[in-house]
């Protein structure tokens, strides 16, 4: 049996007796990010044992969204599923096959919690969608509901500006004559963007560093709190977090060459100041911060042509 023939897709659903919200929870969209997988399986076991009751609406769990990447213990199979999520009549890469299964499943729900982790050390945070708008990039009309759900998850840091920042990066790639898939704005569309485009609310929870032993507990608490916040479970509604920190992404910097290097071992949300040298290009050109702010998602293993790091500034969003 070949590697692909041994794989399958799995979802587990529970439906209460009363109508209400329809939540879907994803783990391992990136195969080496397993905190969500572990938390999902823990919650499924609690529901099946009677420790937790689903009293209304429905919840669907996908413990391993990308089984090929998960089996290989790496971020992606053939490509990054969370940058180009759309069904296709001509599947070529394994992630196309995932999209053809996952996209119809997402469309059956109206709320998404997507559980992730990140490369370097750092505190958990929630990625929010845009504020209500009627623009062409990501029109949205449910920001208040989405924010209320985000505030229930149990983390204190909130980040927005993803698709705007990604689109600006695409524009720079196009201006530089880059013709790769990363130069297509649609390549920035992942699970949450797909969900919002179909009228739902959607959150990405970054639960901590990949190997942080606390990350599965962060994911578990978030699932339990989301079920309670949406009144799907019989647990008390969680209080909204206080002492919040809100940041907005505003710039993405690509790694241009395999010998581009960081100036130090950056972690997500390390503070930077205007003029700080963040890294050095292979030809010796320094990469310098333009504003006081934070570095987000620094990836020392990024491939040339892909995102190396993001920059963020303080926001008043939450």
Q: List the domain count as a whole number.
A: 2
Low-confidence stretches: none
The CATH class label of the largest domain is Alpha Beta
Q: What is the radius of gyration?
A: 19 Å
CATH architecture label of the largest domain? 3-Layer(aba) Sandwich
Task: State the order of secondary-structure elements, H for helix, E for strand.
Answer: EEHEHHEEHEHHEHEEEEEEE
CATH superfamily of the largest domain: Zn peptidases
**Strand percentage, roughly?**
15-25%
What's the overall average pLDDT, rounded? 94
- Could you name the CATH topology of the largest domain? Aminopeptidase
> Helices and strands: which structural class?
alpha/beta
Explain this structure to me?
With 318 residues, the protein is an alpha/beta fold. The protein has two domains: 4-243, Zn peptidases (Aminopeptidase); 250-314, OB fold (Dihydrolipoamide Acetyltransferase, E2P), CATH 2.40.50. The chain is 25% helix and 25% strand. The protein has seven helices and 14 strands. An eleven-stranded mixed β-sheet has the order 1-3-2-4-7-5-6-8-14-13-10, sandwiched between helices. Strand 5 (125-127), helix 4 and strand 6 (157-160) form a beta-alpha-beta unit. Helix 1 (35-49) packs across helix 7 (215-229).
């Amino acid at each position: 049996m070949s590697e692909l023939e041994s794989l399958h897709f799995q979802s587990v659903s529970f439906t209460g007796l009363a109508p209400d919200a329809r939540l879907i929870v994803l783990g391992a969209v990136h195969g080496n990010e397993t905190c969500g997988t572990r938390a999902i399986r823990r919650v499924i076991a609690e529901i099946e044992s009677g420790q937790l009751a689903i009293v209304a609406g429905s919840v669907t769990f996908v413990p391993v969204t990308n089984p090929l990447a998960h089996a290989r213990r790496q971020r992606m199979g053939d490509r990054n599923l969370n940058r180009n999520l759309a069904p296709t009549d001509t599947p070529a890469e394994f992630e196309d096959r995932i999209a053809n299964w996952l996209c119809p499943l997402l469309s059956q729900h109206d709320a998404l919690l997507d559980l992730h982790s990140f490369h370097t050390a750092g505190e958990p945070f929630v990625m929010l969608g845009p504020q209500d708008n009627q623009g062409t990039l990501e029109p949205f009309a449910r920001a208040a509901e989405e924010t209320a759900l985000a505030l229930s998850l149990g983390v204190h840091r909130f980040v927005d500006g993803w698709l705007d920042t990604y689109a600006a990066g695409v524009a720079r790639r196009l201006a530089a004559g880059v013709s790769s898939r990363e130069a297509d704005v649609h390549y920035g569309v992942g699970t949450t963007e797909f969900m919002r485009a179909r009228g739902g609310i959607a959150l990405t929870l970054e639960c901590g560093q990949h190997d942080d032993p606390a990350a599965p507990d962060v994911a578990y608490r978030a699932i339990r709190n989301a079920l309670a916040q949406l009144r799907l479970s019989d647990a008390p509604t969680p209080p909204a977090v206080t002492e919040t920190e809100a940041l907005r992404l505003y710039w993405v910097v690509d790694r241009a060459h395999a010998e581009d290097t960081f100036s130090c071992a950056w972690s997500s949300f390390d503070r930077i100041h205007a003029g700080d040298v963040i890294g050095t290009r292979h030809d010796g050109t320094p990469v310098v911060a333009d504003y006081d702010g934070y570095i987000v998602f620094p990836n020392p293993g990024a491939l040339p042509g892909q995102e190396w790091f993001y920059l963020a500034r303080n926001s008043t969003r939450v």
